[in-house]
Amino acid sequence: MDRLRSLILTLIAVVAMVGLVGGRTSVAAQDLTATAAAATGQTPTPAPAAPAPPAPNHPVALHEGTCQQPTAEPAYDLGETAPFSNSDGTAVPQQEFRGKLTAPPLLISSGQPDVKLDDLLDPAKPYVVVVHESKDAFDQYLACGEVGGPVIDDKLIIGIRPLNNSGYAGTGTFEGGGDDNATGTVYLMSEVLALSGQAAETPPPAETPTPAPTFAPAEQPTQAPTNTPAPTNTPAPTNTPAPTAPPAPTNTPAPTATIVVEVTATPAPAGAQTPTPAA
């Protein structure tokens, strides 16, 4: 009995030890994951959920005219938009979507109007595909596309653009040849959901490179200040004497004329009497 009791206690101790080791391993793994995330600076984010499909049940119809001015009454009905369905008519759940789940979901409508493809392409009587808000708001248009373009193998593909800032756009196809009526299919997409799907998977920001360390420039020795010589006194300027006026010129006396009378004494002839001057 004591041996059985000892064996039971030993088994209980082994089980408790295994549980303790497993718990410590789980905690260590969690700590290791948190440490790795902190080291990389990135927080793991859960995968974004696929956006919900746009509201279905938008009536689609062929109208005469243009997208700027379609006729009020539709010429042919192309059904209502709805999510993609299985063969049994039920919508495909998002859990069964394949590929990238953030891709914007599409709505589809299809119909076979009582008109041939050649009649839809008559330039004298143009047609447009109009997507309406709902049966109650039939006069509110969400998107529109002109029926026209290249026909390849009896198939026409058109573009459908938004109206009234609805954010809905898509494509349409028309097939038919000879005497067969055309089969029209419209694929509608919400541009708002398309953009939100892209924004849901924003890539992490690029790592900023660490700048190389910069070194402070070596200190230059400070030069001793040089003594500035004392300023020399500038001598006061001397007064320059005023210039003296030159003396007035003196009148030079006119030269006097000298008259020289030369008297030549002629000797009297011999025997002649010298006249006596009168008294």
Gyration radius, rounded = 63 Å
The fraction of residues assigned to DSSP E strands is 15-25%
**Bulk shape:** elongated
- Give the H and E element order: HEEEEHEEEEEEH
Give the N-terminus to C-terminus distance in angstroms. 226 Å
The helix content, as a percent range, equals 10-25%
Describe the largest sheet.
Answer: 10 strands, antiparallel
Number of strands: 10
Count of individual helical segments? 3
Low-confidence residue ranges: 18-29, 196-203
Integer average pLDDT: 73
Helix/sheet category: alpha+beta
What does this 3D model show about the protein?
The protein has a domain at 59-199. 19% of the residues lie in helices and 20% in strands. The chain has helices at 2-40, 117-120, 191-199; strands at 59-64, 76-80, 82-83, 106-111, 127-132, 141-146, 151-152, 155-162, 168-175, 183-190. Strands 1, 2, 3, 4, 5, 6, 7, 8, 9 and 10 form a ten-stranded antiparallel beta sheet that branches. It starts with a helix and ends in an 80-residue tail after the last helix.
